[in-house]
Automatic annotation (TrEMBL):
<dbReference type="InterPro" id="IPR027417">
    <property type="entry name" value="P-loop_NTPase"/>
</dbReference>
<dbReference type="Pfam" id="PF00270">
    <property type="entry name" value="DEAD"/>
</dbReference>
<keyword id="KW-0067">ATP-binding</keyword>
<dbReference type="GO" id="GO:0003724">
    <property type="term" value="F:RNA helicase activity"/>
</dbReference>
<protein>
    <recommendedName>
        <fullName>ATP-dependent RNA helicase</fullName>
        <ecNumber>3.6.4.13</ecNumber>
    </recommendedName>
</protein>
<keyword id="KW-0175">Coiled coil</keyword>
<feature type="region of interest" description="Disordered">
    <location>
        <begin position="450"/>
        <end position="469"/>
    </location>
</feature>
<comment type="function">
    <text>RNA helicase.</text>
</comment>
<feature type="compositionally biased region" description="Acidic residues">
    <location>
        <begin position="452"/>
        <end position="468"/>
    </location>
</feature>
<feature type="compositionally biased region" description="Pro residues">
    <location>
        <begin position="1"/>
        <end position="11"/>
    </location>
</feature>
<feature type="compositionally biased region" description="Basic and acidic residues">
    <location>
        <begin position="71"/>
        <end position="97"/>
    </location>
</feature>
<dbReference type="GO" id="GO:0005524">
    <property type="term" value="F:ATP binding"/>
</dbReference>
<dbReference type="InterPro" id="IPR001650">
    <property type="entry name" value="Helicase_C-like"/>
</dbReference>
<keyword id="KW-0347">Helicase</keyword>
<feature type="region of interest" description="Disordered">
    <location>
        <begin position="653"/>
        <end position="688"/>
    </location>
</feature>
<comment type="similarity">
    <text>Belongs to the DEAD box helicase family.</text>
</comment>
<feature type="compositionally biased region" description="Polar residues">
    <location>
        <begin position="12"/>
        <end position="28"/>
    </location>
</feature>
Length: 863
């Protein structure tokens, strides 16, 4: 690799131009800008023959007689030039050696004809071999001649090559005069002879010139042409000359050492190792519960396993095989850290944490109840569901009363706050005269006497101390027996709650303390961490960091002390900022692998953030006219895709109308009102036996309002199925929602129209179909919605209606296998599109139903 070449000053007599340019031809050459930084580099010759940089280029130069540049020179100069040319030509193209040069010198003395030319030639040679030619230095007169010769445009360069030493002045002046006389005489004679010799000598040159003019111009001659001097050179000469010029003093510029390329694959990982390289559990893993525990006594006892099997939990599911051993106690010195779980919907995450947690709490002193575990979930429905699983496990570990049964309490706002307080905390009066006196002193303070508890009941406190102070003030005002004070006892070992309600109890429930808590479970963590209801993390976590009571947070059968945190979701966040709020200790992430997808690039297994249940089938259908969307939905419900399983008792398939007809003549009472809803449930329970096998469908809408409207619209459009339809929104009373879910699980109602209230966590084991009537707001939302079906190893189907504007996002993101890992791709069905015309007959009925809906809404507003 070469950079551009910076030529030195033109002091090289070997330069092809050197001799030529000494002529006045150079007066024609426009002054060439002195290269200041770079000159062009010409690579070395391709010729395999080594080219000597000492070879005199002048030997090969053929001067043209007709050269106009030469003719313009003054006669004296021209004569000198001619002499020089002649002398060069006489050397016959050989490189002069030292001995030759000496010889030539002596010849010069004898042969006066060629003396001037010889001086020039010798000088050229001297310059050529300058470093070793000190002994060949010219005498005084030669030196003068050289100076004269060097007064050409190239003279500065030539002078630069001359030796610094000069002969003494007197001697040289004498010699000069002598020589001058001699030289003048010789010049006169030689000029006559040269003129005679010219035609003969130039004959060969002229012939070659004529020949060369017929040949194609050699690309190598470019440099010569570029100098604007019309040199006529033969091919061989040019081949040698050009490299000679450019090779002068040229050395490759030192280059930095080549960089050794790092061939290792780059890693763009910014996550900590525990998050970047989780513990991966295969879908196929399944073991008996008895296999857990490093040694006997630390795992799940055989009698417990038997009871679990009787409840339907025969073997541990895959995710349970990964999580339960991490949460069971062991005596190893290494501290057991917190556990994060990311596993598909319906994979059994609830049992994965409830079993080890309740096992631990069941080992506690059977006469002391302390709040030892907090389970935080986002909705009331989930609170209830987790409570049921916990109760099952508590019963299993109680071993029919042989051991202590863990006490489980819920706090979710479905009951009054006082009612919840009473279920959480037991208050009793204890004899304690010392504490009683202190209480009286506090009461006697004036500000406390004027304290009105009602005014400050719900005020917010900035610090924990302010909160405690406010609670104590309220306690002090309570009436007690003399010398008695109030003491509080926890009624719960495990509290299952929503975050908002938990914060309220921390702030306003006297005696409610987290001092003994040693388990914190956060289910549906991405939602709870993302929304941070009432800043619950900021309130709860600091209270779990304290170690005020010695040994309060010690784990049985383990060296562990402190709060064990278990964080779960089907769409677990990898956001370190969110997770940071949990103040995790030595965490481990356990991930349930999806169906194995080959990575296109490396052939390895592709890991995506979200995984769907293996037995879930997905399909999508386009709504070509969004105004008629309810008709598209009804069409889907009636289609063979959903109702093909509607088989009557005799086994014959029902036709669509029959299938959608409930056979009841219930009037459409408002589903929102709790009593009406209860009545409706009673009526819907009268669904004829022939609809027993009608599939169950959960329809998701984008909002509470849409769910209510759609539910009513479906009932108006198909009155016969009204009793089969339930509605679930967060605006409905909890009791109504609970009853609806119960009826659905009992298959008394078959269709639920719901908002995202039940999109997460709700376990509906008998659900056959999920329909996304409205597009979910996010990919995570889609995963949770469709995950209500195909749970615990069952099959299920999910349908998504998409409009033109939603198609792109749906197919590029939701249906992409790079985003959500699924076994089979999303199928596109065209039920509705095939029947576009068929809607014409239904549009009138649809418009009538909409009008009715409007009237009902108006009436509801006036009420
Ligand atoms: N070992 C087991 N054997 C049999 N059934 C089980 C087992 N573990 C869990 N199940 C059942 O699997 C179903 C789904 O469990 P669970 O609700 O815990 O799922 P999940 O992973 O929490 O789902 P989601 O992410 O939707 O909340 C439940 O009906 C549960 O009873």
């Amino acid at each position: 690799m070469y950079s551009r070449y910076i030529p030195p000053p033109r002091d090289n007599p070997n330069s092809p131009n050197a001799d030529a340019i000494t002529s006045s031809q150079l007066s024609q050459i426009p002054p060439k800008p002195q290269p200041t930084a770079y000159a062009r580099y010409v690579p070395p010759p391709k010729s395999s023959q080594p080219v000597s940089i000492h070879a005199s280029p002048a030997q090969h130069v053929r001067f043209d007689e007709d050269d106009e540049v030469g003719r313009e020179e003054p006669p004296a100069k021209r004569l000198k030039l001619e002499k020089g040319k002649a002398a060069i030509q006489t050397r016959d193209g050989e490189k002069p050696t030292k001995s030759k040069k000496k010889k030539r010198k002596s010849i010069q003395l004898d042969d006066s004809v060629d003396s001037t030319a010889a001086v020039d030639g010798a000088m050229v040679d001297q310059m050529d071999v300058q470093p070793e030619a000190q002994e060949d230095m010219p005498n005084g007169s030669e030196y003068a001649d050289m100076q004269q010769t060097s007064r050409s445009p190239l003279s500065p360069a030539r002078e630069a090559t001359l030796p610094a030493e000069k002969p003494p002045l007197e001697e040289s002046t004498k010699r000069k005069d002598k020589k001058k006389k001699k030289k003048t005489k010789e010049d006169r004679e030689s000029s006559v002879q040269i003129e005679d010799d010219i035609p003969v000598r130039h004959k060969a040159i002229l012939e070659k010139k004529a020949k060369s003019m017929q040949m194609a111009p050699d690309p190598g001659s470019e440099d010569v042409v570029m100098n604007d001097v019309a040199y006529k050179v033969d091919d061989d000469t040019l081949q040698q000359k050009i490299p000679e010029t450019e090779l002068h003093g040229l050395e490759p510029i030192p280059q930095p050492k080549p960089v050794v390329l790092d061939t290792s694959a780059p890693t763009y990982e910014t996550l900590p190792p525990w998050l970047a390289s989780p513990i991966r559990i295969s879908q196929d893993a399944s073991v008996p519960f008895t296999d857990f525990g490093l040694t006997l006594g630390l795992g799940i006892a055989p009698e417990v396993t038997e009871r679990l099997a009787s409840k339907g939990y025969k073997q541990a599911f895959a995710i349970q095989t990964g999580v339960i051993p991490l949460l069971l106690p062991n005596y190893c010195k290494k501290m057991q850290g917190d556990v994060l779980v990311s596993a598909a919907t319906g994979s059994g995450k609830t049992l994965a944490y409830t079993l080890p947690m309740i096992r631990d709490i069941s080992q506690c002193n059977r006469h002391t109840t302390r709040l030892r575990a907090l389970v935080v979930v986002p909705t009331r429905e989930l609170v209830k569901q987790v409570q049921q699983v916990c109760e099952e496990c508590a019963g299993v570990f109680a071993l029919d009363g042989a051991k202590r049964r863990a006490r489980i309490v819920m706090a979710m706002g479905s009951q009054s706050f006082e009612h919840e307080q009473a279920s959480l905390i037991e208050r009793e009066e204890v004899y304690d005269p010392g504490m009683y006196q202190q209480r009286m002193k506090r009461l006697s303070r004036s500000h406390l006497l004027s304290y009105d508890s009602d005014d400050n009941e719900n005020s917010d406190y900035n610090t924990e101390d302010e909160e405690k102070d406010a609670i104590r003030k309220r306690e002090d005002r309570l009436q007690t027996l003399p010398d008695h004070v109030i003491a509080y006892k926890s009624k719960a070992d495990i509290l299952i709650c929503t975050p908002g309600r938990l914060v309220e109890h921390i702030k306003f429930t006297p005696g409610f303390s987290l001092d003994f808590v040693r388990w914190l479970v956060v289910d549906e963590a991405d939602k709870l961490l993302g929304q941070n209801f009432q800043q619950w993390l900021d309130v709860v976590i600091p209270r779990l960091q304290t170690q005020d009571r010695i040994g309060a947070r010690n784990h049985k059968q383990s060296n562990l002390s402190g709060v064990r945190k278990v964080i779960l979701s089907a769409t677990m966040t990898r956001d370190l900022e969110q997770l940071g709020g949990l103040r995790l200790r030595q965490p481990k992430l356990v991930v349930l692998e999806g169906s194995k997808l080959q990575d296109e690039s490396g052939g390895g297994i592709k890991h995506t953030e979200h995984v769907l249940p293996v037995l879930l089938a997905e399909a999508a259908l386009k709504v070509s006219d969004p105004n008629l969307k309810p008709l598209f939905l009804i069409d889907l419900l009636r289609s063979r895709y959903i109702l093909n399983t509607a088989v009557d008792a005799s086994g014959s398939e029902l036709d669509d109308d029959e299938a959608l007809s409930s056979g009841t003549d219930s009037d459409s009472s408002d589903i929102e009102s709790d009593p009406a809803s209860s009545k409706k449930l009673t009526r819907s329970s009268k669904t004829p036996a022939k609809y027993r096998d009608m599939p169950t469908v959960l329809i998701f809408t984008k909002s509470n309002e849409t769910a209510l409207r759609l539910s009513r619209l479906l009932a108006l459009l198909a009155p016969s199925i009204e009793s089969c339809i339930g509605t679930l929104t967060s605006t409905m009373p909890y009791a109504t929602r609970r009853d609806t879910l119960r009826s659905f699980n009992a298959r008394k109602i078959r269709i639920i129209v719901a908002s995202d209230l039940v999109a997460r966590g709700i376990d509906l084991p008998l659900l056959d179909h999920v329909v996304n009537y409205d597009m979910p707001s996010s990919i995570a939302s889609y995963v949770h919605r469709v995950g209500r079906t195909a749970r615990a190893g069952r099959t299920g189907k999910a349908w998504t209606l998409f409009t033109n504007s939603e198609a792109r996002w749906f197919w590029n993101e939701v249906a992409s296998e790079n985003v959500i890992q699924r076994k089979n791709p999303v199928e596109r069905i065209r039920v509705t599109e095939e029947k576009n015309d068929a809607f014409n007959s239904e549009v009138a009925a649809y418009e009538a139903a909409l009008e009715k809906l409007g009237q009902e809404a108006g009436q509801a507003r006036h009420r």
